[in-house]
């Protein structure tokens, strides 16, 4: 069914609000709403723009693979949108793919997307985007060492582009090129111009960090190592403070290389070792490969050839994977060429068929002439037939007169038959009335029996619901009793073991001044007490939490809820592997929150559907819970025991809880918990 113009307009307005949040410092809010709306939108244009926004968000926080995924989703959704906005979206998507592949170290792939973007921009007169792609292409040429080609493109950007961002980036890249050509004075001139532009705008911190990084490079080339290190560390701190994680990683790699050249192997080892997990999480293959190479060199310098072999092996594995990926791209390019040739063959076949159709049309012209002659002959034949018909009309008139006389006789006969039929019909109705009365009485009896059966069915349903609620209450009571017993056991254990140990330690401390040799005994008792507290904390966890994956437990519980009720539960996870790796204590808290919310929905909400989303992103857990139940007025309702417990659990982890609910509109609950030390198992 065709979508209404009003629906499309509403969805486009929501997309505009998402971009407003993203561009005005509320990027996380934009991300959360975009994830939610992505499942609701039906309009292809809204879907494409929302996917593109998510791609920009992940690009900003250096989640390269996620950014590439959402960019391809945007292009897929845009496939039916061919207006000017659709073309612009395609060009922006090509730019994102180029930048993300450059961050991964896949420069050939990055070059391909910049070239495609520049060609499309030029074709549709998108001037700013055209020079933006030229600028990106120049950066790729720098990575290949093709400095002259990069210089030509950058000077063209400065001369003809009116975009300050492109001009700023061009100054920085020109500084990099001239530094590589050992023309440090020219390099510093361009970098100084870039720095002046950055200092006028406080939001250009990333560009400023880039400028500081390049100035540090020039210090190295002039032999001023200490000044270079100061510049690098300042640029690294600025990048970390503003969450420019990919730039911070590049600067870290440069610092490690400088320390290695200064033969400060211990410091360099720490730098490259810390860079590896960051490079893996960001998908930066070139930095990851270089880190393993430098660790191999450090190990060789220390005569640790076993580690050198391990690091060298990993270096060549990554290098081979990059080359394999680029070969796959070449194969894909050959496939595209092959498909193009096949299409050209089909076009030639269609051209031959069109020639045949043209010849057939000429033959049809001759057939038309023959047809006109045949029509003239038929017209003559029709004139003769008209004359014959006129003679026939006269004969018909005579026959009609005879028929009228016969009809008069038949009318008399019909009147007699009608009288007979009327008498029979009256007799039939006299017999029909009592039969109808009996049928009505029988129908009323059936209707009364049906109402009685319906009432009995409703009573049975109420009984079943009552039994279910009684069963739920029994389960809750049993759970509470079990918890009370467990608390008594823990209290007894704390009193008997931990309390006894602490009393003994206190007594030992009071005698320490007279018997200093007891210090070792006190340390032993402290270790024993710590071990008992640690075992106690692990014993607090349910057995099912310890022995099973968290995602499996959630899905198993959902299956139980759907089997015991008529509620449909939809749940999604991102990233399942990392969620299963969360601290078991935090998993237990999340599972308790999940159980409390579903129990509230079953008891009070009268909902048909529950939507749950659990994401682990940027060291933060995002838990979104929604139902389509009766809802409640948040401003007039105090939190019950269950929601209060949930709030306390979340605050223990420095998290936030937001409840959005209105009468007859359902309930939405958003929970954010920063991971910090809870990301791995205790």
Automatic annotation (TrEMBL):
Keyword Kinase: yes
EC code(s) of this entry: 2.7.13.3
Molecular-function annotations in GO: ATP binding; phosphorelay sensor kinase activity; protein dimerization activity
Coiled coil residues, start to end: 324-358
Keyword Membrane: yes
Stretches forming TPR repeats: 209-242
Leader sequence residues: none
Domain Histidine kinase as annotated: residue spans: 489-677
Annotated transmembrane regions: 422-443
Highest taxon, organism lineage: Bacteria
Matching CDD domains: HATPase_UhpB-NarQ-NarX-like
GO cellular component: membrane
InterPro entries in the cross-refs: HATPase_C_sf, HATPase_dom, His_kinase_dom, Sensor_HK_TwoCompSys, Sig_transdc_His_kin_sub3_dim/P, TPR-like_helical_dom_sf, TPR_rpt
Reactions listed under catalytic activity: ATP + protein L-histidine = ADP + protein N-phospho-L-histidine
UniProt keywords, alphabetically: ATP-binding, Coiled coil, Kinase, Membrane, Nucleotide-binding, Phosphoprotein, TPR repeat, Transferase, Transmembrane, Transmembrane helix, Two-component regulatory system
Protein name: histidine kinase
């Amino acid at each position: 069914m065709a979508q209404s113009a009003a629906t499309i307009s509403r969805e486009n307005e929501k997309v505009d609000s998402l971009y407003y949040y993203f561009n005005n410092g509320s990027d996380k809010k934009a991300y959360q709403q975009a994830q939610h709306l992505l499942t609701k939108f039906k309009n292809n244009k809204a879907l494409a723009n929302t996917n593109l926004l998510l791609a920009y968000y992940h690009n900003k926080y250096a989640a390269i693979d996620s950014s590439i995924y959402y960019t391809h989703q945007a292009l897929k959704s845009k496939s039916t949108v061919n207006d000017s906005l659709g073309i612009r979206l395609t060009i922006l998507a090509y730019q994102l793919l180029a930048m993300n592949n450059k961050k991964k170290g896949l420069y050939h792939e990055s070059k391909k997307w910049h070239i495609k973007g520049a060609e499309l921009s030029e074709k549709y007169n998108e001037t700013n985007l055209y020079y933006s792609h030229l600028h990106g292409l120049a950066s790729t040429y720098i990575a290949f060492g093709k400095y002259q080609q990069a210089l030509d493109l950058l000077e063209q950007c400065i001369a003809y582009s009116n975009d300050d961002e492109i001009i700023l980036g061009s100054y920085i890249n020109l500084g990099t090129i001239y530094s590589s050509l050992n023309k440090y004075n020219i390099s510093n001139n361009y970098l100084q111009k870039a720095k002046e532009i950055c200092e006028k705008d406080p939001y250009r911190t990333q560009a400023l960090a880039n400028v500081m990084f390049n100035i540090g490079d020039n210090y190295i080339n002039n032999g001023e190592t200490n000044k270079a290190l100061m510049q690098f560390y300042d640029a690294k701190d600025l990048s970390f403070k503003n969450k420019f994680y990919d730039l911070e990683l590049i600067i870290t790699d440069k610092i490690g290389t400088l320390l290695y050249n200064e033969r400060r192997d211990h410091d360099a080892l720490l730098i490259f070792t810390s860079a590896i997990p960051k490079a893996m999480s960001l998908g930066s293959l070139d930095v990851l490969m270089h880190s393993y190479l430098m660790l191999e060199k450090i190990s060789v310098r220390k005569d640790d050839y076993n580690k050198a072999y391990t690091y060298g092996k990993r270096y060549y594995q990554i290098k081979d994977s990059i080359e394999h990926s680029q070969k796959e791209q070449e194969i894909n390019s050959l496939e595209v060429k092959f498909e193009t040739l096949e299409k050209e063959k089909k076009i030639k076949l269609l051209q031959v068929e069109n020639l045949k159709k043209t010849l057939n049309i000429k033959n049809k012209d001759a057939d038309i002439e023959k047809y006109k002659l045949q029509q003239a002959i038929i017209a003559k034949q029709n004139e003769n037939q008209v004359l014959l018909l006129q003679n026939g009309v006269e004969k018909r008139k005579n026959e009609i007169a005879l028929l009228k006389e016969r009809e008069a006789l038949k009318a008399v006969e019909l009147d007699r038959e009608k009288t007979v039929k009327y008498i029979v019909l009256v007799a039939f109705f006299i017999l029909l009335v009592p039969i109808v009365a009996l049928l009505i009485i029988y129908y009323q009896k059936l209707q009364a029996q049906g109402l009685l059966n319906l009432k009995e069915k409703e009573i049975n349903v109420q009984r079943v619901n009552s039994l279910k609620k009684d069963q739920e209450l029994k389960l809750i009571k049993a759970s509470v009793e079990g918890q009370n017993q467990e608390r008594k056991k823990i209290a007894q254990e704390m009193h008997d073991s931990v309390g006894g140990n602490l009393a003994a330690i206190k007594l030992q401390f009071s005698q320490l001044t007279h018997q200093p040799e007891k210090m070792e005994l006190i340390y032993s008792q402290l270790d024993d007490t710590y071990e008992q507290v640690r075992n106690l904390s692990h014993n607090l966890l349910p057995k099912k939490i310890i022995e099973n994956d968290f995602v499996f437990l959630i899905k198993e519980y959902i299956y139980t809820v759907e089997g015991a009720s008529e509620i449909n539960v939809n749940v999604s996870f991102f990233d399942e592997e990392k969620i299963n790796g969360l601290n078991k204590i935090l998993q237990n808290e999340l599972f308790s929150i999940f159980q409390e919310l579903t129990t509230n929905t079953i008891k009070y909400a009268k909902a048909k559907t529950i939507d749950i989303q659990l994401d682990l992103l940027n060291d933060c857990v995002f838990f979104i819970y929604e139902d389509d139940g009766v809802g409640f007025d948040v401003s007039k309702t105090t939190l019950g025991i269950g929601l209060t417990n949930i709030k306390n659990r979340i605050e223990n982890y420095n998290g936030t809880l937001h409840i959005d609910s209105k009468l007859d509109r359902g309930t939405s609950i958003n929970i954010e918990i920063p991971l910090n030390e809870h990301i791995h198992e205790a």
